[in-house]
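Reproducibility note. Readers wishing to regenerate the assembly model reported in the main text can use the exact inputs given here. Chain order matters: entities are listed in the order in which they were concatenated for prediction.
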Amino acid sequence: MPANILVVEDEPAIQELLTLNLTQAGHNALRALSVEQAQLLMRETLPDLIILDWMLPGMSGIEFARKLKGDELTKAIPIIMLTARGEEADKVRGLEVGADDYVTKPFSPRELNARIKAVLRRRAPQMTDDPIEVGGLRLDPMTHRVSGNGATLDLGPTEFRLLHYLMSNPERVHSRSQVLDRVWGDRVFVEDRTVDVHIRRLRRALTETGHEQLIQTVRGVGYRFSAH
Amino acid sequence: MPANILVVEDEPAIQELLTLNLTQAGHNALRALSVEQAQLLMRETLPDLIILDWMLPGMSGIEFARKLKGDELTKAIPIIMLTARGEEADKVRGLEVGADDYVTKPFSPRELNARIKAVLRRRAPQMTDDPIEVGGLRLDPMTHRVSGNGATLDLGPTEFRLLHYLMSNPERVHSRSQVLDRVWGDRVFVEDRTVDVHIRRLRRALTETGHEQLIQTVRGVGYRFSAH
DNA sequence: ATTCATTGTCATAAATATGTCACATTGACG
DNA sequence: CGTCAATGTGACATATTTATGACAATGAAT
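Running the prediction on these inputs yields the following structure tokens for the assembly.
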């Protein structure tokens, strides 16, 4: 839950305020006074979130945002834009280059915290390489094996990735488009309904080895993996 | 983001100016020339914000404000006072009766918009993804689960959204049209009474799991979720 | 070339949710 | 107490969503 948050802000007073606020909220704040410093820092650690001032000396915040969103390595990092003007135009431009949210100065700490929380929550669920065990099922990403009580499941590549994703994030509900994003990846020229079919195949494989109702349908929303 | 804003102003020219300004900012303007008209309108829809002239024929603005802030149903609605005099004393009196902000005539549309925006941002809690717990009920949007003492509630999509809305704003009466706006969203080609039916279904699910009277009827007004 | 596994899409069935109506209750008020 | 309006309730036709089986395209393995 604690996250690494990079603050890019040239005004020392504001930066101080921000980092104080962040650390109090239990996060780990990294600070940079310019885009250059930020890039340097990011060579070390990729942050979970970037709070980026609109106006910066040297490269502007918006330019930096565009750059980050264009890079495969950093495109997934959410960005919250910090802008002095509350103009609608700026908001649009900010969101255009891929900022995930924006806050206008002066901001209330409460509001900022709320937005940080919201953005972090949207953070794409991760899939680890460690073996996972949920509800009597054991999935090992390394060996590409899934074993249920005794037997071993026979899954196709897509089914495996789907199950891997679901087991990496049990309990929570995943919409079809979320699943497509995470399991199918970029080329989402695939129908939503396709997810249903693969869920079906997965379910068949599961019930064949005696696992019932591990994957639940949440009508109108999506699917959920959970041991009841 | 768009909000219902009630303008109470007896001077037609100013009212025109105000509503024009509001609609241009993407809001929905309701107009009243007097307190009486305003009260009539508010029986239909509770606005998100009231812009209230200080001097009005019949009941004065300040009196109306006091009344509104004294009523459980309307006390949460923010009020921006509109006054010709810039006297400090008036400001104090306005804030005393619960006005959230005030603007002196003549006002610049920009300033007014800024204040509206600020006030609206402070307004009633939105629906978030955070788990909510009220009256022994726990609703978790992420897992899409509702659990009462022990048992888990089985709700349809609409019922879930409805409960989520009510629990996000407990201890507060919601008119049917408010509920329709927030829970049904755009497609409001739906009868008011439909809300009743869904409330009914929700209540059934609640009582089946031993929760009594969590949803109360306020005759002539709407419904309220509260732990007594 | 042939076989086989996998995958995405459909068509159709099955399940479930939704909105409205008719009628029953309830409450406010003279 | 009687009347009117507001709300509670059950039923039901319709709409929406999901499950399922079949199929053709693809590509890898034999």
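We highlight two features of this model. The first helix of chain B runs from residue 12 to 24. The helical segments of chain B are 12-24, 35-44, 61-70, 88-96, 109-121, 157-168, 176-184, 193-208.
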